[in-house]
Design brief:
The protein is 39% helix and 11% strand. The chain has helices at 6-13, 22-25, 32-35, 56-68, 90-96, 114-126, 143-152, 175-191, 248-256, 262-265, 267-280, 285-289, 299-310, 325-335, 350-363; strands at residues 74-80, 101-107, 131-133, 163-169, 221-227, 230-235, 312-313, 319-320. A 6-stranded mixed β-sheet has the order 3-2-1-4-6-5, with helices on both faces.
């Protein structure tokens, strides 16, 4: 049977007409620009909103994190691979200084193309910070975090307490999922080893709370990941960055990644920004997924189309819908990777980096205040 679009599956369950399916749409294999030669996307987006979310438990969590940093051997900063630079929690990592070995984890790497993920990782490593690409929800590359900790650790109390890890980052980037993945791998490995092995002896199966919503983790909690080697980890609440009024685009990117509840920025505003980015990048998968006649820059038309299709029939046999239902459905499809893969941050190419280095050498004096 031909694969259905998400919208078609919902309509089929309600006994409504299916419309197009992906099986029928695969015949249209042309490049987006060739399929829609007359469509010209917007050249700019009007950032008239400054979404920001910083609530009480974040301030308390920030203080607690700074208190615990003195005991940490490895500081793991989790970022979203769809915004590898904008989703950096610079305020917490700068506070750590050189007290702990740092590792940047670009989570949700399956939601960007492999080339983009590798380029972002290389840029971060070129800046001097080790970096890993992971898909924590599928336990992909999670084991490499443990290997990194054992290979690069400067354990303060290796014989007694063991290796201390701390996972930090913005809300909803997958910190708790990373910790749960480490625990699951340890238990899975132990099942295939002898009874004498004490990899997870005495370790509780308690997992960190992970629900895919921002603000679920509100306390700094402590988990044992394995017994041999002895490894512990602090799970921390997601802490938003302080508001920068001069950078509304970064705040909008973070809102689109759901590091804050959608209503803070507004569902329609976020859907409009997402539509702008998809059109600009010529990633027009949404046309087929939402069964539209073609690409559009009109977010109200798009969300009204989806909301009408999703409308529920009430007792008086009239269709009703929640005003933001179309925008929410559109956002969630992209967050699940069903509308194509785009990176919200610009990833400089090798040529661009070379030009920047050359420009820096030409404009800055040599010696201790500039490049050698």
């Amino acid at each position: 049977a031909a694969a259905m679009t998400p919208l078609a599956r919902i309509l089929a369950a309600r006994g409504r007409p299916l419309g197009l399916t992906l099986g029928r749409l695969r015949g249209y294999a042309a490049v987006a620009s060739d399929r829609y030669p007359d469509f010209v996307p917007r050249e700019s987006f009007n950032f008239d909103n400054h979404p920001h979310w910083f609530i009480g438990h974040m301030s308390k969590g920030k203080r607690k994190i700074n208190e615990k940093l003195k005991d940490v051997d490895v500081l793991i900063e989790v970022r979203d691979a769809r915004a590898p630079f904008s989703s950096a929690q610079t305020e917490l990592t700068l506070a750590a200084g050189s007290r702990a070995q740092r590792l940047v984890v670009l989570n949700k790497a399956d939601l960007v193309t492999p080339n983009v993920g590798l380029a972002a990782r290389n840029l971060i490593e070129d800046a001097g910070t080790p970096c890993l690409l992971t898909v924590a929800a599928q336990n992909k590359n999670i084991i490499k975090i443990k290997h990194f900790a054992m290979e690069h650790v400067r354990a303060k109390f290796p014989r007694t307490l063991g290796v201390m890890l701390m996972v930090v980052g913005l809300p909803n980037v997958g910190k708790s999922t990373v910790i749960n993945g480490l625990k699951r791998i340890a238990f899975a490995t132990a099942r295939h080893q002898t009874k004498e092995n004490k990899l997870v002896h005495g370790v509780k199966r308690t997992e960190a709370r992970a629900f895919g919503e921002p603000g679920v983790t509100r306390q700094v909690t402590f988990f044992q990941l394995s017994n041999s080697p002895r490894m512990y980890c602090y799970d921390t609440p997601g802490v938003s960055l302080m508001k920068k009024k001069n950078d509304p685009e970064r705040n909008t990117k973070l809102a689109l990644l759901k590091t804050m509840p959608d209503h803070i920025a507004g569902e329609l505003y976020l859907a409009d920004y997402l539509l702008y980015r998809l059109n600009r990048e010529q990633v027009l998968d949404y046309v087929d997924e939402l069964e539209l006649p073609g690409p559009t820059d009109d977010v109200r038309y798009l969300t009204s189309h989806v909301a009408a299709m999703l409308a529920q029939r009430n007792e008086s046999q009239q269709y009703t819908s929640v005003p933001t239902a179309g925008a929410t459905f559109f956002l969630e499809l992209w967050r699940q990777g069903k509308l194509g893969k785009i990176c919200l941050d610009h990833i400089p190419s090798g040529e661009e980096m070379q030009r920047l280095r050359l420009l820096r050498m030409q404009t800055e004096p040599p010696g201790p205040w500039g490049p050698p």
